[in-house]
């Protein structure tokens, strides 16, 4: 909505919409859970959701209050972004702006490839819950890594979107660069804590401390901000692999 220059019509936002320009707009969700009473209180004409939004009871209450609810497709890869942008733009009567935004996003992503093809692994970490996973095909991070011209070693070699991280699997993959979410890295005690996890220190990335952390709300939230992320990611990967 912000990228479609539609901030002026926003009366509420979800908790993952963290742009500075939106900080004064009330939050009406807790994660993907809609807080129906907060939505109804704001008296919007339209509520835009996706398939992950719930619970159904809250959505039914919103509809019961006479508020129109439009469901848009989820976006899990770079290829999904244009479809979602078009759907949101159509919902607010701004299809032309949606087309213009999609053109600008595609152009920015195309110019973000790096000269080399480093081997990159995405690690999903939740140290407080002892969850340590390696991203594979369909993790979402794979499309970002591909977009910058690097090789996602997990997507190339592992069977599932997320796979148990072991010393053996890391030794086989041996990435030059490791990408993690910021809070995930914090949960294991930063880079020093990450290097203590089995197998990490023995990889090329571990030896050079070539670790890039990305804001949790941005890495796998495919939308208009993703094009800027791809550009920043390309620069970061190039910097740590010099």
Distance between the termini: 38 Å
**Sheet with the most strands?**
6 strands, mixed
Order of helices and strands, N to C? Answer: EEHEHEHHEEHEHEHEHHHEHH
CATH superfamily of the largest domain: Nitrogenase molybdenum iron protein domain
CATH topology type of the largest domain: Rossmann fold
Average pLDDT metric: 94
- Any idea what the shape is? globular
In DSSP terms (H or I, runs of 4 or more residues), the helix count works out at: 12
Taking pLDDT < 50 over at least 5 consecutive residues as the criterion, the unreliable ranges are none
Number of strands: 10
Which architecture name of the largest domain does CATH use? 3-Layer(aba) Sandwich
Pfam families: Peripla_BP_2
Domain Fe/B12 periplasmic-binding: 1-242
Task: Set down the secondary structure blueprint.
Elements (H helix, E strand, L loop, with lengths): L28 E2 L2 E2 L1 H7 L3 E5 L5 H9 L3 E5 L5 H14 L3 H16 L8 E8 L4 E5 L5 H7 L3 E2 H5 L4 E3 L2 H7 L3 E5 H6 L2 H5 L9 H5 L2 E4 L1 H4 L6 H15 L2
Parallel strand pairs: 3-4, 5-7, 5-9, 9-10
Antiparallel strand pairs: 1-2, 5-6, 6-8
Helix pairs in contact: 1-2, 3-4, 4-12
Question: How would you describe this structure in keywords?
Answer:
Rossmann fold; 242 residues; 2 domains; 6-stranded mixed β-sheet; 17% strand; two-stranded antiparallel sheet; alpha/beta
Could you walk me through the main structural features you see in this protein, from its secondary elements to its overall organization?
- With 242 residues, the protein is α/β, with parallel strands linked by helices.
- It has helices spanning 36-42, 56-64, 78-91, 95-110, 141-147, 153-157, 167-173, 182-187, 190-194, 204-208, 216-219, 226-240, and strands at residues 29-30, 33-34, 46-50, 68-72, 119-126, 131-135, 151-152, 162-164, 177-181, 211-214.
- A hairpin with a 2-residue loop joins strand 1 and strand 2.
- Pfam families: Peripla_BP_2.
- Residues 1-242 form the Fe/B12 periplasmic-binding domain.
């Amino acid at each position: 909505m912000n990228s479609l220059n539609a901030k002026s019509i926003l009366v509420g936002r979800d908790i993952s919409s963290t742009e500075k320009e939106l900080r004064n707009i009330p939050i009406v969700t807790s994660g993907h859970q809609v807080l129906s009473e907060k939505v109804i209180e704001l008296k919007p004409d339209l509520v835009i959701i996706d398939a992950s939004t719930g619970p159904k009871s809250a959505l039914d209450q919103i509809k019961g209050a006479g508020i129109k609810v439009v469901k848009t497709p989820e976006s899990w890869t770079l290829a999904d972004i244009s479809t979602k942008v078009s759907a949101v733009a159509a919902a607010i009567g701004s299809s032309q702006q949606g087309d213009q935004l999609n053109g600008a996003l595609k152009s920015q992503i195309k110019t973000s490839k790096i000269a080399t093809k480093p081997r990159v692994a995405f690690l999903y970490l939740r140290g407080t819950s002892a969850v340590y996973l390696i991203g594979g095909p369909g993790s979402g991070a794979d499309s970002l890594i591909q977009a910058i011209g690097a090789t996602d070693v997990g997507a190339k070699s592992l069977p599932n979107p997320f796979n148990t991280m072991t010393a053996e699997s890391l030794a086989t993959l041996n990435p030059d660069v490791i990408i993690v979410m910021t809070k995930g890295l914090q949960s294991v005690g930063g880079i020093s804590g990450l290097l203590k996890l089995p197998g990490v220190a023995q990889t090329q990335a571990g030896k050079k401390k070539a670790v890039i952390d990305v804001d949790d709300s941005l890495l796998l939230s495919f939308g208009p901000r993703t094009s800027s992320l791809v550009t920043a990611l390309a620069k970061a990967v190039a910097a740590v692999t010099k």
